[in-house]
Each structure stands twice: as structure tokens, then as C-alpha cells.
Amino acid sequence: MSLRLPDGGRLIDRSQTVSFTFNGKQLNGHPGDTLASALMGAGRTILGRSFKYHRPRGLVASGAEEPNALVNLGQGKTHEPNQRATTTELFDGLTATSQNHWPSLEWDIGEVNALIPRFLPAGFYYKTFIHPRAFWKHVFEPFIRQSAGLGKAPDPKQTDPDRYEQFYAHTEVVIAGGGIAGLQAALEAGRAGARVILCEQTGHWGGRAPVDGVEVDGKPAEAWINDAVQELEAMENVHLRLRTMVAGVYDHGYVIAYERVSDHAPASDIPRHRLWRIRTARVIAATGALERPLSFPGNDKPGVMLASAMRDYVVNWGVAPGARTVVVTNNDDAYRTALALLDAGLAVPCIVDARPRAEGALPQQARARGIRVLTATGIAGVKGLRGVVAVQLCAQDGPGTVTEDVVCDAVAMSGGWSPVVHLWSHCGGKLTWDQDGAFFRPDPDRPPTDQHGEGFVACVGAADGALIATSTMENASIKTRKMLSEIGKMVSGSVPAVTAATEAPMRPVWMMPATAGPKKRAKMWLDFQNDVKVSDVQLAAREGFESVEHTKRYTTLGMATDQGKLSNINGLAILAQALDEDIPRVGTTTFRPPYTPISMGAIAGEARGTIFQPLRRTPIQGWHEANGAHFEPVGHWRRPYCFRRKGESHRAAVNREITATRTSLGLLDASTLGKIVVKGPDAGRFLDMLYTGMMSSLKPGRCRYGLMCNENGFLMDDGVVARLDDDSFLVHTTTGGADRIHAHMEDWLQTEWWDWQVYTANITEAFAQIAVVGPKARAVLDKLGSDLDLSNAALPFMSWAEGKIGGFDARVFRISFSGELSFEVAVPASQGRAFWDALLAAGAEFDATPYGTEALHVMRAEKGFIMIGDETDGTVIPQDLGLDWAISKKKPDYLGKRAQERPHMTSPDRWKLVGLETLDGSVLPDGSYAVAPGTNANGQRNTQGRVTSTYFSPTMGRGIAMGLVLHGPDRMGEVLEFNTTKASPKGETPKTVMARIVSPVFHDPEGEKQNV
Amino acid sequence: MLTFRCPCCGIDACETELAPGGEAHLKRFGPGSSDDEFEGYLFLRPNVRGVHFERWRHAMGCGKWFLAARCTATLEVFGTYPAQVSAPPPDILAAIRAKRPDWSLT
């Protein structure tokens, strides 16, 4: 039974009480508590259930490495699963619930899994649920889903009410970790004048040193830490951040840090999390080390804990997991825990040391204080179902014959320490095996390198393997000074003297007892969160998974949310033993960012809702919004699809718009159309290379339709080019293509034809452009009044002129995408809305009807005009679309010409554009295929064509379509069978639709209407 | 995330400001070239492990294309230079040889 001690706890304020709830029950803690320490203080031992066997689990660690104590935090909109109790700072009103149990934390039905663990070894799911196939969906999966899974996903219908933000920072040194090594590194760098950002993931400075009784310069570590922080805070070039974890180190000195701004004090009007995006010259990882568990039978029971974590709980928060603790270790450091427990008035019946001898300073102290020290001893088992009742002792070098039972209610274990080398490894730093310490540490000869080819990350202190406090500080100073000299910063001065007990060497112990049989090995946990045991890794090795990466995936070792912080080395050692290999030869798995999980909110930052993506607005957008426009996205624009009147369907609105345009007058906001000016003595020559047609021969005042292909021959854009004067052209592109085409032009001009004198400018947004379309188009412009002669004789089809219309500065283009008489009028963007209003007022007598993109699409399809993105998909060449007339035969070269000469491009068997008319007048499904006799190699129906555009045409009163069909133009009148996706009753083949091949020009084939 | 110094505006630009453009110093083959020449120009890339010349555009900055010499294995950047050249300039070659004595331009 865990408890709050009568006194002690350097981080808590006992004078105040903070209340919170766990599984609905109200509990109390103190300011400074973590959720973990508060729960321990409230007597809560079982905090969760394990993933696979649903075994009851309690705290193992005190920090970011905690595998068991994951909880749901918050409720409703703020609910968040899988939060570590150990890194959650307590606040008044915190609500937490435990996870992964059903029906309750104390009584879980899945616990039967634990009684029959031989049914769930590594690879169990792969092997068991594969047959019979049909059982998966209806039998296995529902049961597994009910009992599996970590935490509950937030309600997708709820929106996260919290705010998140991102900061960009540029600095010279980022230091991760605010223990004594990190603080010393920051002092060195700060005194040398370097710009420094120092991040500490917890809410307090100093790391472990105060807990471990370290002295600096003859004073307790805490005093030195306070002085160091004060000095750093006074430095303008040093920036200190608490609650900020350096999550990842990336190429060229890019660092991501994750700041939990207000998790510890919610409801304040500041962001919850902040993601720091930092560019730095150097990274110092003062990330410390993590203690490793020992693999003895029953090491996962609630009350069995890392020795250092138990010391943290006692010293930092004045709580303990039990009153009688057995310490089990293979090193001297764990003796500190025994001494700390004695200091707190708790009992330590014995220290179980796997080493044959324990004569170091700390073991001597322990003996002197009356603790029984048993060497060459191990633990053969832990008694107790939902907690610890006693441990069974045995000889370490044996099969585990029990020699003695020791009554206790907690176990502190220590299997040695592993430096936290994650940040070193994220960007390619290599590791080397340290034989003495039995851990991987950074290989100084193979650091991660930056854009200059220089190592830019250094691990210092315990993260570099300097585990003993006396060497930690010195290591931090030396390494930091070396790094500073690389970026031209010099520092000198003495290094603080550190006093701490000396430690005798540890002895690697990967299995306890050393020659345990299969029964015991199946109870030795390596990965607590994913329930991976020594027996699972050994099974994987037997089944041929020799690579650590394969073993990891087969057993799920280290794949839980803690990413193997506790289990990696132990698992690796067991695998190496099973393979009879050296650990460094088996290798280590790859550390990937983030170090611990970060919130999706922080990754998104402010980019959500309406500012997720910037929207582009035409000068006339406001009118559209106020007049029933139904918008569709086109690139970053929102264009009106149609303008609905009250009670009108989309379809009815589109039909009305088309009929009005074809019979009287329609208005289209075409401002989104790309407009690029191409100017210079070589502009004509350049456009001749860009377009398939000839542009240099175009006369000023005239327009020409052009096709643009990429170098691979495929159509990429189309549009009308107007020649403004001798050396300038105005290129119209598709709405979505303006930026892309402008970039395409610049690519060729800057990197291939850089000696050509051509300049381009994307002026898309400088003009509002309105298409005035229909038989009354000229009448409405005449009514507005113009200094231009707009007659067909003076301004014929495919010409343009500049002048005044209704007092507006205008360029008028006689171009038509609808087949009607059409003037596209461009006015300066600032006058766009006024011009639109003037047209509407003047056009009232002609029933002037604004139309949207769908009417535009239908009208162009009625005329057989292609649309980039409908008729083209990146595999279509102009010749496929019957556009040979727009390809110059005279030009020696254009982009795509050589590609179009390849045999498969000139093959007569390419599918070609035709019109399609259903026999029953219905609308063909978009994208449907024309089926052909026989089947292909995959047993699918052969095809001979597909639909590229399909609409209901109010003008024709029936469905019309365009499509690409094998030998299409030669098969006029032939009827094809098109598939549909319409659901059909069981057993029947889906319905097909019959359609006749016709000319793609359905309306006004002679072009009489546009040419008046 | 890579950084390159844009030789046009002098800024150390982050990858998010840049658009990649593949291998540099390609010789264009148009009409009249053989199938092999055209295939080589359009499709065949050595995809080297090591020193690589490549095209980048400072798309979210000055808009200019530039070329970079970079090690594809270590991501070391030997230098950047304006795009208006058909072969790497001598100072870039010298910078590469200083770091990679065994390397040669093939």
C-alpha cells in the first residue's frame, strides 16, 4: 500500500491542498505533485492494465520513460488519451481516468489472458487468426477490438477548444536538458557570448543531482543549481525554457522543441502547447540517462519500481510505494535508494545484489546502517496478485531454487543505466558499446553532420556515459568548450568541483536468475506496456528473427508509446544471448523523433479552420457571397458553382443560367483566369517554344488559342494568348495553372534559355475579368457606352482592343468559351466590383444572369471544347484530342515535340476524343469505361474507351458526354456499352448504359453564334 | 530539413522556402535526336550516392533558380551557384575536392 510520508518532499508545498479526481473519485495532493506522486500519496497502487494480458500495473518510473501509468486526461472537448501520470503536473480540478480495462480497473475480464499466457506468445495473432478467413471479421476482430487498444480516442465530432502556436527561432546553441550537465553547458556557452536556448522537459531545474545527494563546490547541489539559474537568467544571450522537451534533431541544425505552456495551469488565456522550430549551429544533448529494469519473474507487479524512481518519489514528493522495500540491483547506485528509504523512516529488509561482492562506499554505508546485504543473490519470484506481498530469493547463478521468502510490499530494482542518446541518433549519429557500463554511448568519431560536413550534436554528462556525478560536470564543460571553439567562441575558467560517493563497477545482469527455466522466463517482462517478455524474444530468435528490427516488429518490443525507453537494451541483450552473439554485433534499433509523443495540436499550430489554407478572393467575391453562390474550390480560389434562387435546386439553377446565357445575356466572373505578361525582344520566340502553335506570327490586336505541353509531350495547360504590342504578349492560363505555368516559364528562361531577353510577370490578381456572354452581349456594352467600336467588323472574333467602357479602363477580348457572342472585359481589380454592378444594372432589361462554373462547363462541353483536368490527366497529348490544328507543322521545335514523335505517341491505337450520346438520353456516369469483349490478364473486362466529361445539356435536352475511345473518330455512329457503379441486387451484373459515338460538337457546329 | 544559401539574394533558405528541380546540367535533346539521347535526357538519372549537382528554386523567396553541389549521403552542401552555367564552376569543384579528395567529375 503506497503512502504519503509524514514529512519531506522538496518539490511539494504541504501547506496547500489540491483536489483532483481519478476514475470519478475525489482525491487530494499538493502543489508541486505530479499526478503520479499524488496518486501514490493517495494510496493508489494499480493505475492501469497492460495491453495484451490486462495485468494490473502500477508506476515503474518517475518521468518520461514511464510505460504503465497512462491515463485519459480531461473530459468531453478536452479529453486526451495516453497521458503519462508521471509527467502530468497536478492542478486543482484535474480529472483522470484509467485505461485499457473492461469492465473496471480492479476487475478486468481480460485478466484471464494472463492466466493462459501460453496462448498469447509473440506472433500469436499472426499465427492464430489467419484461419478460417471468414472468422476474422465477425468473430475475432470484434472481440479483440473490445478488449484491446490503449485509451479512448477523442470524440471526432468535438473540436479541440485549446489554442496552439508555433515559434520560429534562430540561435547558436540549443541545450536539451536542465540537469547539472545542461546548466553547466549553458553557463559555459552563455559566458562565451553564444546565443543559447536551454530547454528542460520538466517543471524544475537541476535533474537528479539533488535527489542523489550530490555536492557542488562544497554545497548541496540545490544551492549551486539556484545560483546557476540566476546567473543564466541575467544573461541576455541565454533563453531558458522549462516544460520544453527537445523532441527531434533534424538535418542542417533544425530542431523541434515542444513546450507545454499551460498544461499545468489550464483555463489561462495562453496557448496550451507551443512548437519551437529552431535553426541552430550546435545542439548539446544533456539528456541524462535512464535506469534499466531487471528481468526477474514477476517484475511487472504493482509495487515493483525502478530504484531511482522510488528515490525520486521519496525525496521530491514525500511519497512511497510501500513501507517495506527490498532493493535488487547489479550496481552501487541503487544503494542510494535504500539509504534514502531509511532516511525517510521506511524499512529495507534486505538489499539483493547480483554481484559476487559489494564492497563499495555505498554498500559499506548500507551495512553500517544495519541493512542486510545479500550478494550473488537474485529474485526467483514475486508473491502477490495485485501488489507485492513477498519476494522469493535464490542464487543469481542458478535456475532459481528458492532459498528464502522476504516479506515486503515494494521492490526497488536497478539493472544499470543507459545514456539517453536519442538526439544524437535522430540525425545519423552512430553509437559505440561501452563494455564497462554495458550501454551504448555516442561514438565521438561518427557524429551527425551538418551542411558543412561538421558534427553538430554533442552528448554531454550522463548522456555521454559520464554517469558518476563527479565526472558529469567535467564532461559537460570539456565537451561544451570543444563545441564552442568550433563556432569561434572561447571560454576559460575552472570547473566546479563535484563531490559524490564513488561507485564500484556494475555487473551486467540480463536475466535473473541466470539459468531460469521456461516457466520463469515467461514471467520476466522486458516491455511492460506491450507485454513482451524474455520468453517472447527468445521465441523470436528461435523462429529465425535474427535482426533486431525484425524481432522488434514480431514481438512488438519497444513499439509502444514509450518507444522502448526501458526495454530496448534489455531486449537486445536477451536477443544477443539467444543468438550467441555480442550485443554490439546484434546492433540497436533506430531512434526516431519525437523523443516522447507531442500533441497533434502543436503540429498544426494556428493552421486550422479558416486559416488552414489561405483563400484567394476575386474583387467580385462579396457579391457572389451575398447572392446565393454555391462555391467550389478551384486551386486556392472559391468559385461560384451556380447561383441558387430561393427554392431552386443546383441543377435547376445551372439550367436556368445556361438558357439565359444562350438566349439573352450571361455574366461570368472570370477574374481567376491566369494572366501572365511575357515581354521582351525574344518573347515571340519563347512562346513558340512553350506552345505547340505559332505565337510569334500573331499580330498585335489579335488573339490565338494555344496548347502547352511538358517536355514529355503531355498537355499541361491551354488558353488564349493576346499580342499586346511588338514585344509583349498577354498569356491566359487556366485558373488553377497560373502559378504553375509562371514557374514553368521561369524554369526554362532561367536555366535553359538564359541568354534570351524575355521577362515574365504574373498579373493575375491585378485585373478583374468579366465574360459578357450571349446574343445581347454587344447590346449591353453599347448601352454602357464606349469609345471603342465593338462591331464585328471593327473588333472581330479573336481580336482585342483597349479603351473605355462605361467610363471604366478596359481591355476587351473577343474570345468565347461558350460558343456565344462573347466579350471578356478586363478592368483594374480595384474597379472590378463597380464594373460588375454597372453590367448588372445595364443588363437588367436583357435579364442579365450571372452564371457559375458548372454552366461554364456545360456550355463548353456543348461546344466540344476541352477542359484541362477533364479531358487531360497527364497522359493525354493534343493529338488525342483532335487538336492537330493547334500544332504548328512549320516549327522545328517546341517543348514536347520530340516526345510526341515517339512510336507510342504516334500509334493509331491511342484513344481519341469523341462525343457520346446515350441512347436513352440519360447522363453517362463520369469516368465510366466502354467495355470490350474478353478479359485481361487479371480477369477484368477489357475496355476500349472512357468518359472524360459528362453533363445534362439543357440546350440539347439530354445527356451529353465527351470521351476517349479506341479509333473513336473512325467509328462515328457506333454504339458502345459503358459500365456503371449503380448498386445491383445480389447475383446480377451491374447495369450498363449504351451510348453512340458522335461528334464532340453538339451545339452550333458551324460557330455561327460566336462570330456575329 | 535542408538549408541552402541562395546565390541570388544571399539568404540561407530553409527547404520549406525552396522547390526542388532534380539533377542539374542536363543537356536538352529535342527534335532530330535519337531515341537513346532523348531517353537519356528525359528519364535516365544516375541517382548518385555522394556528390550531386542539383537544381533548386527559391520559390517562396526571390523566385530565382540556382544550382547546388550536395552530398546525397551526408547532406553536406559544398556550395551553391547561379543556374546560368552548363557545368559546375571551378570554385565549386575546388570546394568539393577539398572535402572529397577521391571524387572526380565524370
UniProtKB/TrEMBL annotation, chain A:
Pfam families named in the record: Fer2_4 (PF13510), GCV_T (PF01571), GCV_T_C (PF08669), Pyr_redox_2 (PF07992), SO_alpha_A3 (PF17806)
Occurrences of domain FAD/NAD(P)-binding (ranges): 172-424
Entry superkingdom: Bacteria
InterPro entries linked: 2Fe-2S-bd_N (IPR042204), FAD/NAD-bd_sf (IPR036188), FAD/NAD-binding_dom (IPR023753), GcvT/YgfZ/DmdA (IPR028896), GcvT/YgfZ_C (IPR029043), GcvT_C (IPR013977), GCVT_N (IPR006222), Sarcosine_oxidase_asu (IPR006277)
Domain SoxA A3: 523-605
Listed GO MF terms: sarcosine oxidase activity
Record flagged with keyword Phosphoprotein: no
Domain GCVT N-terminal: 622-891
Ranges for domain Aminomethyltransferase C-terminal: 912-982
Any GO BP: tetrahydrofolate metabolic process
Keywords: Oxidoreductase
Family that this chain belongs to: Belongs to the GcvT family.
Name used for this protein in its record: Heterotetrameric sarcosine oxidase alpha subunit
From TrEMBL, chain B:
InterPro entries: SoxD (IPR006279), SoxD_sf (IPR038561)
Superkingdom classification of source: Bacteria
GO biological process, one term: tetrahydrofolate metabolic process
Gene3D superfamilies: Folate-binding superfamily
GO MF term set: sarcosine oxidase activity
Pfam families: SoxD (PF04267)
Protein name from the UniProt record: Heterotetrameric sarcosine oxidase delta subunit
Species this protein is from: Roseicyclus mahoneyensis
